[in-house]
């Protein structure tokens, strides 16, 4: 019996929580919602067979919340009755509510951990409209790199891009390249990505075939949503796949077999946070200048190159040979800037 009744019990707790969130604390009397208004707001969380059954279920839950002194009728004897939430900590102290929250947290964590997708877990906890939720006073995601100020965008561009994505419409933009050359392409948006301080739109241009190309929003001087023109969609488009391939980092991101020697803080970091799921580590021989040798199959992107250069002398690129030559050349150029000073 416990296995069948427990979910129903938790469903009821969720319904009560949802009702509470629909009730304001302090507004003018006529602005407090009635039963009819609440029915429209909470219908999606009630498994009712008919509109009449839904209304009766909502009324029962409202009566229960009044009995528990969590809500109150603001116009006793009036028609229709209106309800307000009472300022109380009773909800937080309810063991059943705590049990529901704990189960939800366990489910979220169990989903995130196998794939190391903690970023999604943090976003869920920060943006949930229902429990479990943590606000920014108790949870913050801090970048581990220098944070530049976001690029300025022209008036109306951001809202137009978002509207086109939501409505799956084409978008005509005025686009200025780094050379100063301007074009006015019709774009077919696929996805929007914020990489560091710059936002990019992945889109098809005119009648071009896939793959989608990358367009920086700060280079759009004007944007117009073409509401009568449906955006062409790339069949099987996968945003995570596009990011993994390095599409957002100006290149196809061909996979390479990376071999590194690392030491110091980087050795500890890469033991804890692998570069990819199948990363392999071996201890360096005794007497080596480095602590570990690492093998990983990763996309060759500008992001990878910047990360390798940022590690300084805590890292040596062993292979592939082309990447080793690029890193060595960049290191020599940087050293030359400081030579003799």
Would you kindly provide a brief summary of this structure?
This protein has 341 residues and is of the alpha+beta class.
Protein architecture, described:
By secondary structure, the chain is α+β, with helices and mostly antiparallel strands. It has 3 domains: 2-93, Arc Repressor Mutant, subunit A (Orthogonal Bundle); 157-249; 255-338, no CATH class. 38% of the residues lie in helices and 22% in strands. The strands form 3 sheets. Strands 3, 4, 5, 6, 7 and 8 form a 6-stranded antiparallel sheet that branches. Strand 6 (198-205) and strand 7 (213-216) form a beta hairpin. The N and C termini lie far apart (80 Å). 16% of the residues are buried. Mean pLDDT is 82; it is low at 1-7 and 89-93.
